[in-house]
Design a protein that fits this description.
The chain is α/β, with parallel strands linked by helices. It has helices at about 15-25, 40-50, 60-65, 80-90, 105-115, 130-140, 160-165, 175-190, 290-305, 315-335, and strands at about 5-10, 30-35, 55, 70, 90-95, 120-125, 145-155, 195-200, 210-220, 225-230, 245-250, 250-255, 260-265, 270-275, 340. The chain has two domains: about 5-120, Rossmann fold, CATH 3.40.50.720; about 125-285 and about 315-340, 2-Layer Sandwich (Dihydrodipicolinate Reductase, domain 2), CATH 3.30.360.10.
């Protein structure tokens, strides 16, 4: 079988994990080029993964190399630019979340890919975390009956601004950076929102954007879903970067809590199960639940490109998540309920 040839755009912190995950699928894909505006970073990563070509000019890369797709792992401001460049050349696009800096730009990315008849995917990996997938399987099994209420939570005091100081300068921070994950997990578990109401806060006085956001949604199937996110919460059981989920149904409840433990409670009692992430040799153990899910997301997208199944995180699907992100900001600014 002919391998799909691809290039990675951007050689920052996340690129080595993204490429590591692709290497697990090297039977089907071949990484032939890297782009980074600082060429030395691309050269270093190329040495690590034996990539034959490096560029500091994205247009030269796209014009010189024969590609089936690109994987964009750059700053969000460049996502629309690189997506348009690739789409106009008939190259399929995978793009990191969040899709775009604005809702209008996200829509333009969608339209550009559609008009040029190229496939467009968003690399949204939180829904692919192994504990979240097992939780979804249990929910779908009906063991807790019909769900009516849920809490999806990512709250801790992790010093995110120490590792990524640029985040402190963002006018819109936690909903775009983290909310795109948490709102997507909510959609993955409970479907689409019928209404949304959001409140935000800035607790850290040394940042520009919000570091706390709470989004209350009524989903189409009637579930009341409360999505909360915070980097200002000093808690007893903080497990960055783990997501906690509590789901209540008419026959019981499911709780994904600290250290990947899923509790299933019905009238007959509670059972517990530990669902640990898969550890690959390229994974940072402290980030394992996030890093290992990159493989599962990549594999799902690959199967779509090979015509074997429809990917979950297509651009069209993620457009619904990005709408929730920007509608959350609108709701908070206007103190209003957004109805769909």
């Amino acid at each position: 079988m002919k391998k799909l040839r691809f290039a990675v755009m951007g050689c920052g912190f996340w690129a080595k994990f993204q490429i590591g995950a692709w290497m697990e699928l090297k039977e089907h894909v071949e990484l032939i080029a890297l782009y980074n505006r600082t060429l030395s970073k691309a050269e270093h990563l190329a040495d690590c993964f034996n990539v034959p070509a490096v560029y500091d000019d994205p247009q030269k890369l796209l014009d010189n190399e024969e590609l089936d797709f690109i994987d964009i792992i750059t700053d969000v401001d460049t996502h629309p630019v690189f997506t348009k460049m690739a789409a106009e050349r008939g190259i399929n696009v995978i793009c990191q979340k969040p899709m775009a800096p604005t809702f209008q730009q996200a829509r333009a990315m969608m339209e550009s890919c559609k008009s040029n008849k190229v496939d467009f995917y968003i690399h949204e990996n939180f829904r692919w975390q192994k504990p979240v997938r097992v939780l979804k399987e249990k929910l779908t099994s009906g063991i807790i009956g019909k769900p009516f209420k849920a809490n999806v939570s990512f709250c801790n005091s992790f010093p995110v601004f120490d590792n990524q100081p640029f985040l402190a300068e963002l006018e819109q921070f936690i909903i775009t950076d983290l909310g795109s994950h948490i709102l997507d997990v909510s959609r993955s578990l409970f479907g689409e929102a019928k209404s949304l109401y959001c409140k935000t806060q800035r607790v850290n006085p040394n940042i520009r954007g919000e570091d706390v956001a709470n989004v209350f949604m009524e989903m189409d199937d009637g579930v009341h879903c409360y999505a909360e996110m915070s980097y200002a919460s000093i808690l007893e059981k903080e497990r960055f970067p783990q997501t906690y989920v509590l789901i209540e149904g008419d026959k019981g409840s499911l709780y994904l809590g600290p250290d990947f433990e899923i509790s299933t409670t019905t009238k007959t009692g509670t059972t517990k199960e530990i669902v640990e992430p898969t550890i690959y040799d390229w994974v940072d153990p402290d980030y394992a639940v996030v890093h290992s899910s990159i493989f599962d997301c990549n594999q799902d997208i690959l199967l779509d490109m090979l015509g074997k199944k429809e990917a979950e995180t297509t651009g069209e699907d993620n457009f619904k998540t990005i709408q929730l992100v920007f509608d959350s900001y609108q709701s908070a600014a206007e103190n209003s309920v957004i109805n769909y």
